[in-house]
Amino acid sequence: MQKRDVDVVVIGAGTAGLGAQSAARKAGASVALIEDGPYGTTCARVGCMPSKLLIAAADAAAAVKNAPTFGVHPEGVRIEGREVLERVRRERDRFVGFVLKQTERIPDEVRIRGRARLTSTTTVRVALEGSDEEMEITARAVVIATGSSPYFPPNLVPLKEKLSTSADVFEWEDLPESVAVVGPGVIGLELGQALHRLGVRVAFFSPFNELAHINDPKVAEVIHEVLSEELDLHLGIDAFDVSEATDGNGGFVLRWHDAQKEPCEARFEKVLVTAGRRPNLAGLGLKEAGVPVDERGQPPFDPRTTQIGELPVFIAGDAANHYPLLHEAADEGRIAGSNAANFPDIRAQIRRAPIAITFTDPQMAVVGCGWKKLDKDNCGVGEVSYANQGRARVKAKNKGLVRIYADRDTGRLCGAEMFGPDVEHTAHLLAWAVQSGMTVFDALDMPFYHPVVEEGIRTALRSLTGDLRLTAGTAEKLRYGPGT
Ligand SMILES: Cc1cc2nc3c(=O)[nH]c(=O)nc-3n(C[C@H](O)[C@H](O)[C@H](O)COP(=O)(O)OP(=O)(O)OC[C@H]3O[C@@H](n4cnc5c(N)ncnc54)[C@H](O)[C@@H]3O)c2cc1C
Ligand SMILES: NC(=O)c1ccc[n+]([C@@H]2O[C@H](COP(=O)([O-])OP(=O)(O)OC[C@H]3O[C@@H](n4cnc5c(N)ncnc54)[C@H](O)[C@@H]3O)[C@@H](O)[C@H]2O)c1
């Protein structure tokens, strides 16, 4: 068996792993970066970038479809599925190319190809790619950055190889005639709505009623209303079953009971499973290596240090399952790499205000403390409906509801749940306000141009001032500054 000894082993060369190896090497550590899949990261190859490229094509189709609202009548519109998917892959490959160049710049002796598992908290075994050999690497610290994989509900596991995941969509040669989306979460709604707008017959199925990660009941209600005008949603269904069609024409038959308990059946060319993602931890031998795990097999960790307990083991990105998002993976990778290099002298770092955006149309976002974790007794709520908001109406994008939360006694902004036009941008404004500790009054002091969708946020902030519990003196101070 080959043997190596380094300061830090990083398992996984995705966004978190690349950040970790870079931070560890900058801190002067010798590093081994182990990867057994293709280089290029989930984000660039099969995640953020190709999904947004598909959505961009769908946006173009939607603009053409909505053009008659403005008296503009495009003639002879044709969607060429092959061209749509070719552009998705061409642009995706460009993004992947940049990551590959970055990865190739990492010295050869750092990069090891193979599948890793822990045999102790400081020893990693690698089944080397293309050989029967193993390598044993001892280290002062280990970073787990192994990402996540699609979850298949138990009833779909027997058909796993035949069903599609989000990664498969980007490899389709042409757009299929029909797709059943199992799991209307972030990925399911983004890809499903895009496919629908590109002319594919799409239906969504879930035993649950939730859509994406919006928990504020008022916002969720508007989302259900708006999306069900456009999309074929089958939520809260039971006895849901998928089987291969048996008439020799390919495709799948879905059977379920609707809300009235009536049996239903429909046929689809493809079934896209987007029922969530799970951290890639199962084959790492964590428990046997002495790493504590909870009932789901997840090691508890401190998000400010990324350390697991007091061990020389750190976890980052989707593997940590804290906020499985790109910018969080990058941050956690850097924190993990630097702490692993300096172990046991580790530092806690302040994490950014949470922000998560779903690129549907209208878009959804959760900022700061969302509804689920909100201290509802002590937080006020302000809201704006986009139904009659000026700029949204101008653009015929006047759908949605935004609810903003603030501490009732201090007026300090704590979060928002959002559904509406351009919330990818307004969510950032609110996230920056939350992180910088702004009160509702600080935010209202900021400039608001006219006419812009941000004016809707001002309406919500103004309505929020009416739901605070401020004494007259505090309100004056908040409004005009402490000197008054
Ligand atoms: C369709 C889709 C769309 C998305 N869109 C967005 C978006 O718009 N915005 C956003 O913020 N986030 C988005 N995400 C989430 C984002 O892509 C992830 O949060 C992020 O890529 C996670 O990075 P990571 O480094 O943790 O994992 P990865 O990039 O997946 O890296 C993990 C690596 O570890 C390797 N590995 C696993 N096990 C082992 C092992 N035992 N030995 C060796 N190597 C191993 C894997 O091969 C992989 O290369 C999207 C995800 C998907 C799937
Ligand atoms: N725009 C973005 O930032 C973006 C885009 C895509 C993915 N992501 C990240 O990737 C993560 C994973 O996305 P995802 O969409 O796979 O997960 P998700 O948790 O967002 O959605 C899973 C959905 O599947 C449903 N579901 C669960 N079990 C089911 C079952 N047995 N049958 C049918 N439906 C079932 C859930 O109710 C939920 O609606 C997201 O949470 C997010 O962090 C982010």
UniProtKB/TrEMBL annotation:
Residue span, FAD/NAD(P)-binding domain: 7-333
Enzyme class (EC, first level): oxidoreductase
- In this UniProt entry, which cysteines form S-S bonds? 43-48
What residues sit in the active site?
Answer: 450
Binding-site residues for NAD(+), renumbered to this chain:
183-190, 276
Pyridine nucleotide-disulphide oxidoreductase dimerisation domain: residues covered: 357-460
Q: Which Pfam families match?
A: Pyr_redox_2, Pyr_redox_dim
Write out the entry's keywords from A to Z.
FAD, Flavoprotein, NAD, Nucleotide-binding, Oxidoreductase
Can you quote the record's cofactor note?
A: Binds 1 FAD per subunit.
Record-listed E.C. numbers: 1.8.1.4
The cofactors required by this protein are: FAD
Keyword tRNA processing present in the record's keywords: the answer is no
Recorded GO molecular functions are: dihydrolipoyl dehydrogenase (NADH) activity; flavin adenine dinucleotide binding; NAD(P)H dehydrogenase (quinone) activity
Which residues of this UniProt protein bind FAD? 52, 146-148, 318
Listed SUPFAM superfamilies: FAD/NAD(P)-binding domain, FAD/NAD-linked reductases, dimerisation (C-terminal) domain
Has keyword Flavoprotein? yes
Record-stated family: Belongs to the class-I pyridine nucleotide-disulfide oxidoreductase family.
Protein name per UniProt: Dihydrolipoyl dehydrogenase
